[in-house]
């Protein structure tokens, strides 16, 4: 069995190799590694929340509560990212990973390296953002 492809090797592949077995294996490993790191961070945050020491000083209580709220928001964001990683792994298993949900065009290797959970190509993402901005402005 061959060692996993490097990012440089991935980017050097010809365009007709897009989402071949090697590239899918590269992104599967990337997503699984991100998932493991995220699960570790989430577990550590939960441990921090569980082992909270109560304080009798009102200033410390307020500060601790603010810190706790920040940790809870962080956990919520990380849980959403974990869900996105799981969805990306499901798309990989179905052979749909790397293809724009809106246009069916390739999302692109560079975009997937930056955001492995991306579901839209850059053009579709820009259209979505313009539409959202327009809806906020009206």
Give the helix/strand layout.
Blueprint lengths: L6 H6 L8 H30 L7 H37 L14 H6 L7 H16 L1
Helix pairs in contact: 2-3
Q: What do we call the CATH topology? A: Four Helix Bundle (Hemerythrin (Met), subunit A)
Radius of gyration: 20 Å
Count of discrete alpha- or pi-helical segments spanning 4 or more residues: 5
Strand content: under 5%
CATH level-four homologous superfamily name: DksA, coiled-coil domain
Unreliably modeled segments:
none
Oligomer: single chain
| Strand runs, count | 0
Number of domains: 1
Text of the CATH class = Mainly Alpha
**Overall mean confidence score, pLDDT:** 89
Helix content: 55-70%
* Broad structural category: mainly alpha
Task: Specify the CATH architecture.
Answer: Up-down Bundle
**H/E series:** HHHHH
Q: What is the CA–CA distance across the termini?
A: 56 Å
